[in-house]
Amino acid sequence: EPEVTQTPSHQVTQMGQEVILRCVPISNHLYFYWYRQILGQKVEFLVSFYNNEISEKSEIFDDQFSVERPDGSNFTLKIRSTKLEDSAMYFCASRWTSGFAYEQYFGPGTRLTVT
Amino acid sequence: DAKTTQPTSMDCAEGRAANLPCNHSTISGNEYVYWYRQIHSQGPQYIIHGLKNNETNEMASLIITEDRKSSTLILPHATLRDTAVYYCIVRSTGGGADGLTFGKGTHLIIQP
Fold this sequence. Notes:
By secondary structure, chain A is mostly beta strands. In chain A, 0% of the residues lie in helices and 50% in strands.
């Protein structure tokens, strides 16, 4: 069964450094998402991406964040200058169609630790 | 999107049916009910969705009341691997790439 993959599974970085989290969505999916979950808290939507541009973003997704689909398979989240509060699990998700279904398929996540 | 209310936690014995309720009294006519679950720090997993009729798939059944103000997710024969946080989410139909809004969900614990 096709699945969303994410790399790395765990990333440790120092405050102020740039990090890039990588995702490979399911191959025929058209909509891509990033979410984050701070330890012990709710899963929070960050951004959605369709047709090579951002469709929607939350208040969390400020100028420190950017997303890119550099080729036909990868979808990346960049954090320009990490802060301690960026420590969280980051989940990528993808969805096939814009129809009635909101069945998003999530990857296993990248645990980001900012020290 | 309509607000949902779920119990914070529930227990169920292994092998029994787990019935997880969700209240969505302000749901509107074009909004679907979706269920996802998250097994300990893994990515959320889609379970099932429905609009008006009851739905069943290989994972679960979804029972929606006639007035659509509440629903119940049923795991027919719960196993220890079903221990997870279960999220009930109400979303409108139509296109768009909107993200999902997760609440706190119900922490379902399957007891051996």
